[in-house]
């Protein structure tokens, strides 16, 4: 009686001319086995299987999927998961090349597979882990690469990778909270605008035909909505193109203009409720990133230089760079933070205590945890606050149009009565 099981897959090498083949065969006990093997041709696959004591039955090139064959784009969340996987395996004593091989084979995203296999091949070719990461600056930023380099230099790469994994996970969770706070109201406003446009273009004209049969003057509010409907019906495509063009143009200009980015970030920090969330988020990212880099052994001035780009806000980026310049000439971090007049008193005091006690990284992590919790609480409170406001907003927009359409009918009923 034959049983079916999967053989361990052989990791694809990053060499040219290799193709992945799927195969089915039987071992010496008659047990059916199947798997995938990269090779230059089918004959080499069969030879390798026989060498392993497997009699090949079927060997064929692996079919490529019709859609998504290139794989999904690599997102920061994918790098966070990769960081946790490599950290866990190295903590367990698995060599880095073997760990990368296991992670690469188990990843379902083809692009992520290629990235991991490329890193593994570079390490097998004699590069260090940090050197291999420098070939992929989009996925692994300067902070990531510097932390790995510091861990390799100090001989504590597994510990540093564990710290990086925790940092990435916390950072992605924080980003998720911020996106949640921004996405909900933006989607509601977008839906309200779409519903209003549909009513004005398709529904209001139907009522207008009915109103013409009345032969009476329409109420001012109804006439205003009818006029708006006529304008939308005639020029909706101009409005649509202008709206899309404006959004695309603003985004393009925003990406190219540092002055605009700085202005937008400064304005966002002053918006009620949202501004407080963004402030707390920037402080949390500053504290956690500085704590991670400092604990990894990166010199403080260099760490501050790295942290400046990780705060997520231009105002805080400029402030951290001023702190870096002050620390470079001998000022304590807490005194430099006080001079930029941006950080709360509690953050400055916690930093001062950490510097005096020689436990700056520990105190920074406590600051980060506090402000991450503040962001969580603020987002939850914002959701509760926005729900009734959104209901009122939708009621005014949609309900106002409904009332405008029925006002003439109500007046007609009063006259007839």
From TrEMBL:
Subcellular location, record wording: Cell inner membrane
Gene3D superfamilies: Type II secretion system (T2SS), domain F
Membrane topology reported for the UniProt record: Multi-pass membrane protein
Alphabetic keyword roster: Cell inner membrane, Cell membrane, Membrane, Transmembrane, Transmembrane helix, Transport
Segments traversing the membrane: 183-204, 234-254, 390-409
Ranges where the Type II secretion system protein GspF domain occurs: 82-205, 286-408
InterPro entries: GspF/PilC, T2SS_GspF/T4SS_PilC_CS, T2SS_GspF_dom, T2SS_GspF_sf
Keyword S-adenosyl-L-methionine: no
Broad class of the protein's primary localization: membrane
Listed Pfam families: T2SSF (PF00482)
PANTHER family, sorted: GENERAL SECRETION PATHWAY PROTEIN, PROTEIN TRANSPORT PROTEIN HOFC HOMOLOG
Family in the record: Belongs to the GSP F family.
Protein name per UniProt: Type II secretion system protein F
Organism: Cognatilysobacter xinjiangensis
